[in-house]
Automatic annotation (TrEMBL):
Hydrolysis of 6-phosphogluconolactone to 6-phosphogluconate. SUPFAM superfamilies: NagB/RpiA/CoA transferase-like. InterPro entries: 6-phosphogluconolactonase_DevB (IPR005900), 6PGL (IPR039104), Glc/Gal-6P_isomerase (IPR006148), NagB/RpiA_transferase-like (IPR037171). NCBIfam families: pgl. The lineage of its organism: Bacteria, Pseudomonadati, Pseudomonadota, Alphaproteobacteria, Sphingomonadales. It comes from Sphingobium indicum (strain DSM 16413 / CCM 7287 / MTCC 6362 / UT26 / NBRC 101211 / UT26S) (Sphingobium japonicum). GO terms for molecular function: 6-phosphogluconolactonase activity. This is 6-phosphogluconolactonase. One of its GO terms (biological process) is pentose-phosphate shunt.
Amino acid sequence: MPTEHLFVDGALAAADMARRIAMILGDAVAQRGVAAIALSGGRSPRPVLEALAGAALDWDKVIVTLVDERWVAPDHADSNERLVRETLLQGKAAAARFVPMKNKAVDAYAGQAECEAAFAALPWPLDIVLLGMGEDGHTASLFPGAAELAEGLSTGALTLAVTPPAAPHQRMSMSAGAILASRHIFLQIGGAAKKAVYDRALAGGPVEELPVRLALCQHAVSVEVWISE
Ligand SMILES: O=C1O[C@H](COP(=O)(O)O)[C@@H](O)[C@H](O)[C@H]1O
């Protein structure tokens, strides 16, 4: 069962999550000399990343990467890299080392090997994987109904290329195995619609139906969920 942090307000939830992330990254730097976090994109993480940018950390010892990425140019409005650069990698936090998923390959499938090599060079286990969830129960870019979902849930690779069944852009995604190779999994759930999906996921059932179950219905890695109205 995940640890749940309940908030009436999304801004308070974001501030609390940022504090907890900063604490874990700070501990990792103190203990290992390096800290690593993988971030989700989309709309939900923006306030968390803006709050985290102000944390007093040895940012030059922090590695930041992505849980998933849309295969678009880094200055595209839908780019998760752009989100991270505009929100987190500002001020002192700009000293962090950012490891992108997107490379110059013509599509995500052609770019997967280079992305995999970049991920293999990260300091595993990552300290935190910050997940979001769509209302269809997808997490990272592991979408229900995607041709690559079975691969994403079973591959020994850290990353895979994905074509979402009903969302724009090819994606690069961390695999389930990579997500579960982290020390802490954090999940953001905002709004009543996502809360209903989250409750359904927690009740149990096939991970193929609601891929977020890969994180929620396991006991190997600690999971904390920030839930706001
Ligand atoms: O496509 C994506 O969607 C999920 C959820 O995004 P949100 O906008 O509803 O917060 C996100 O976790 C994932 O990283 C992103 O690529």
